[in-house]
Amino acid sequence: MLKTMQPVLVSPAWAETAAARMVQLTQANRAGGELPASCYRLGEVNGTRRPYEVDQGVAVVSVAGLLVPKLGYIGSSWVTGYDGLRFQLAHAFADPDVRAVCLDIDSGGGIAQGCFDLVDWIVAAKKAAAKPVGAICSEEAYSAAYAVACAADSIAVPRTGGVGSIGVWLMHWDYSRMLEEAGLKPTIIQSGAHKTDGHPYAALPEAVRADWQGQVDALRQLFAETVARARGIDVAAVLTTEARCFEGPVGTAEAVRLGLADAVLPPDQAFSALVDHVRENQ
């Protein structure tokens, strides 16, 4: 499972994948070297190279894989940085050849840090640019990815996809018994009562657990308020979902009924609908 003491916004089924991608990202950062051919650093963008594809006047911005606060590059199919999304969208909103933006989303979520600030920025920036934004799931937009989708004016999800998972979690690992059986006993020397809160070499103290529970509850409330404001539904209705993933034909239809999505459509049809909307409102 995902080893973390940091709140995360990922769907339950995606936790193992998120953990693997965090390891992959850490290893890649340590190794350094060249990026894959499909990727390029934000500083490499110039006047002749757009940081997105444009199709029929619509800028297509990919939101794929694990979502993290700072990545420094774009183009990966397995990790996306909030910094990169903001960079791409800022360019798209300022691009005179772009009349609308498509968020092409396929992600089970990511890190909480930076997510809601990005969502608030997108909402304000799209209004200032007067350009519509459509979120098209291909296939899923869970948790942090769903929060990003809510910044759009519309959300479309295919019948085999899913949306939701409006919740927060973090995990504590207690290695004390394993270390004891191995004949190891760590000694922690600290200054400051809270300096080592949540360390993995002992059971989690109840006071720390209560503090962490308060943190995730507050983040979930922020998440629910963000969704409610963007989707025009009650905060209580969002909280009532209890972080459920609305997936498959039944779940996606219910998501539309609850106001969490606007349409159940294949990605190509959803994109055509966005293009038609742009043409009708030119």
From TrEMBL:
Pfam name, any one = Peptidase_S49
A GO molecular function term, named singly, is: serine-type peptidase activity
Kindly state which keywords UniProt assigns to this record, in alphabetical order: Hydrolase, Protease, Serine protease
In its UniProt record, which GO terms are filed under biological process?
Answer: proteolysis
Boundaries of every Peptidase S49 domain copy: 126-274
Domain of life of the source:
Bacteria
Q: Does the keyword Protease apply?
A: yes
Note whether Protease occurs among the keywords: yes
Enumerate the PANTHER family for this protein.
PEPTIDASE S49 DOMAIN-CONTAINING PROTEIN, PROTEASE 4
Q: Which family does it belong to?
A: Belongs to the peptidase S49 family.
What is this protein called in UniProt? Peptidase family S49
